[in-house]
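User: Quick sanity check before I run a bigger batch. Here is a single chain. Can you write out its predicted 3D structure?
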Amino acid sequence: MKTLHANRNKYIFLIVSFIFWFCPFIYVPILSPYMESMGGKYTYIGVVLSSYGLMQFLSRLPIGIFSDLMKLRKPFIIFGMSVSAFSCLAFALTDSLGWILLSRSLAGLAAATWVVFTVLYSSYFTDREIHRAMGSISFVVVLAQLVGMSVSGYIVNEWGWHAPFWIGGIIGIIGIALSLFIFEPKEGIQREPVKLKELTSVMKEPLLLKISLLSILAHSIIFTTMFGFMPAYVLEIGLEAGDISLIVFSFMIPHAIATLFAGKVFVPMFGQWKSLKLAFGLTAFFTLLTPFIHTKGWLCVVQGFNGFALGLLFPLLLGMAIESIPHEKRATAMGAYQALYAIGMFAGPFLAGILNSHAGIAASFYFSGILGIAAVSLITVWNRSVSKTAYKVKVESG
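Assistant: Done. Predicted structure follows.
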């Protein structure tokens, strides 16, 4: 009976997690073209897209610290689910560009509560099962994003611009109801809050800072392109709103598959730094190639390769971010890492929006491609210095 209850708790949690990410991602592919249809300029679209990352950057650590101080997770999960649902409904009920900015900012605030989700879910498992647990919840996140983004264009074609927001809001309300049944131990989850001294010492770790910078660049690329201006580009080259779903599907399937290959195939074959260099290099190439593609078939192919390359990056960066950090400081390091990479989620779309307003929508892809090249250059320099240090130590030791 105890096992039955434990399994039920896990399933309810995973369903709520699916809904949590489905709600904001069901409208991501149509958001930039929707704002364009309302007369929004590229600079303003960039501001709206970047507000999602800005709210996460500002809110993630405070939410995590406050949750640790209260030793409670469930109220924060209900809060996050409620804000996510309200964000969708605010989109659906208004036709104002100002409300769109507020709604997207609220979606960012909701996403910042995800750190609390992962802490509570991990408490359902023993230490030996923790990697399997994180694998399960990561799969649910990718699945929710894939399903939401894949149906978005089709829904708009059938029922109009507001339909994805209504669907996201209604499903979000179901998520709020289900989140009330999430199990949290009565004694709470014992976890020490992040201390400022610890945070400062962790932030001085050279490898964490390097990986965080690379992650900022990677998140800038994906939030500027596929989660940003790609749907607007699809319509710009004469394709239909329904074709957005096909392009998203072409990107997201390889993106999800790549997460399985990063640690099992590429790292053993090439090593971590070379794998990162290869993934960033491929991302830069296919992103720079995108503005030269004007047919649906080739755009699907290019985005498929790009999705795979970006899918390799994120698990590699996540693992490398904490590998040099002592175990007792890894929770702090992860909080810092997540807060830092959110810089890319707002800086990338914001700068791309300004560039697009002056040079057209292709500018966002050139900008993102240059970020990929910059990442390759940084990795080359850092890897060379690591190799020199290792060689020097080897010589000195005889």
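The radius of gyration is 21 Å.

User: Great, the batch can go ahead then.
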